[in-house]
User: Fold this.
Amino acid sequence: MAEIHLKNLAHSYYPNPKGDGDYALKKIDHVWEDGKAYALLGSSGCGKTTLLNIISGLLHPSDGQVLFDGVDVTDLPTEERHIAQVFQFPVVYDTMTVYDNLAFPLRNRGRSEDLVKERVMHIAEMLEMTDVLKFKARGLTADAKQKISLGRGLVRENVAAILFDEPLTVIDPHLKWLLRMQLKALHHRVNNTMIYVTHDQTEALTFADQVVMMYDGYVVQIGTPQELFERPAHTFVGYFIGSPGMNILPTHIDGNLAKINGLSVSLPDSYKFDADKKIELGIRPEFCSLSREEGLDSIPVSIKRIEDIGRHKIARADLAGQEVNVIVPEGISITDEHTHLSFDASQINVYSNDWLVERGAQS
Amino acid sequence: MNKTWNNKAWWMVLPVVLLVAFSAVIPLMTVVNYAFQDTFGGNQFFWAGLDWFEEILTSERFHNALGRQFMFSGIILAIEIPLGIFIAMNMPKKGWGVPVCLVLMSLPLLIPFNVVGTIWQVFGRVDIGLLGAAMAGMGIDYNFTQNITDAWITLIVMDVWHWTSLVALLCYAGLQSIPEAYYQAARIDGASAWSVFRYIQLPKMRGVLLIAVLLRFMDSFMIYTEPFVVTGGGPGNATTFLSIDLVQMAIGQFDLGPAAAFSLIYFLIILLLSWIFYTVMTNMDKENGR
Assistant:
C-alpha cells in the first residue's frame, strides 16, 4: 500500500516534444492518498491509459517523477514496483489451471509452496472462486477471467496499488453491476490504493472516492463525485458528467446580472470580466424548472420536445435560439403552455474561457 | 405433424460433387482399379484380390523405403519446427526490418522444387560447386554422390533451407497476434523470459504450429523432386524415399498393380499420421478443462 505522488509529471510520445500539443499527458503534480479509490475518467484518447501505464512502469515519462511513499520509482521496472494491473481484455494463462494462474506471480518470486497455497486459497475465497480452482482458465467466462487477473494482483502480499484499465469493457451488462459491487466491497476489505480508468461516468462515480477528470491530456478536476456534479471546474466536466450534461449558455455578465440574448438572469454573486473572455453560464438540467405563469426571474422559452426516459422526463426547450435541457420530475406533465423557465440560482456556475470562476473570487 | 419434403436443395450440392468427382474420386478409382486387378496388356484385366497389397506389405524394399521416409520426416520436423520458432521470436516486431525480413524469408518458398534441387546439386558438386569445392579445399572429405551420410546431410540442409521460412513465417504471424497486454501482465507478474515463452507464446502459437507441423510432415513425407534431382535416390538406395521408389516401380519397371497398391498404402499412411498429429495437438490441453 502506498501513497502515490506524481511530481511534475508529463509525457509525450514524440522524442523531442515542442509545445503543449505534442504532449499526450500535460504536466500534473498531485498526490494520491494511500488506501483510496480513484477513478480516471475521460473520453477516449484523453491520456488516461498513458497516465496509468506511467504509474505501473510500463511507460517511462518524458518529464517528472513518480514517487511511491516518497521513494522515487520512475526508473524502476514494472516488476519491482509491486503494482497489480487489470487490463481491458482479460489476461489469463490459458494452459494453466485457475490455481496455477493465481499462484504464478508468487512462484515467479520464489515463494514456498506452503505460502503459495495459503495465499491462493485466501484470495480464491475472497473472489468466490474456490470451486473453479482446478479448471483450466481458458474455459471460463470473461468476468471470471477478469477476476483471475485481479486475483493475480491481490495474491502478492505487498501490492502498492491496484490499477484497472477499463476492466469491465468486455463484461455483460448485468454482470458489470455485480462485479463493480464486488470490486467496491473488495476495496473496503483490502484497503489498497486503487486506480480505475474508465470512460463510463456511472462506473467512475460509483466506484471512486475521488474522480480524476481528464480532458485532452489535462487533469481538469479532481474531486468527489458530488463536487464534479455540482461544481464542475471546466465546461467539459459539466458536459461529460450527468445525463443529459450541463446546459452551457453563452452570456454577457454585468455585475450580478447575466444576459442571454437580451434575456436577464440574476446571479447569486457579482462578476466582472474583460471583454475578450468567453463567458458562459452552466446550469444542470436537474436545477431548471418550467412553469405556466411568469415568475420572479423566469425567462420565456418554448418547448421543442419531451423525452420520457422512465423515472423522469427530459424537456428540450428553446431559449432564444439556445437549446436548454430540463429534467422534469415524475408525475408532472409538461405542455406547450409551460413557457417560463427558471433556474435555481444557487446552482448556477459561471465559466470564463471554459474554466469555472469561483464565487467570491472577484468581490 | 405435417412435414413438407423438398429435396431441391440437393441440386446445390451438385457442383461440388462433380468437382470432387473429377479432381479426386475418379483418378483415385483408376488407381484402385489397378490395385485389385492384374493385366497383361490389351486392356484385359483379371481380378487379383489383395495379392498386390500382400506383396507390397511384405516386401523388404517397401519396408526400407518406409523406414528411410520416417527417418527423413522425423529429422526434418525436429530441426525445422524449433528452428522456425526460434527465428520467428528473433525477427523484428516493427520498423523497416519487418518487410526486409519477410521478403528475404519468402524467397526460398518461391523457388520451384526442381530448381531448388538443381541449385543444391550444383552447389554441392566437388569439382565445380561452391560448397563441395570449398569443403574439398579445406580438406574435408565430402561427396554426396558416394557417401551416404553426406547425401543425407545435403538433402536435410537443403530442405531446412527451403522450408524453415514457412514455419518461421507462420509462427511470426502467431506471435504478432498476441496482444501487448499479455506481455505487460507477465512483466507485472514477474515472469521470466522462459515462462513468457512457455505460458504465453507457445500456447498462443498452438494453432499455427499445428498447421506448420502438418504441412511440413505431409510435404516431407511426399518429397520427390529434390532428392530425385540431387541424388537420384542414391548412393545405392540410401536416399530412395517412398515416392522415388514408387515412381521407379510404376514407370521404371511398369509394375502397375503393385505400384497402385503401394500408392493406396502410401496415401493411407499419410492420412492416418496427419489425423494422429491433428488429434494429439488439439487434445493436448483438454484434460482438466471444461
Observations:
- Chain B has a mean pLDDT of 86.
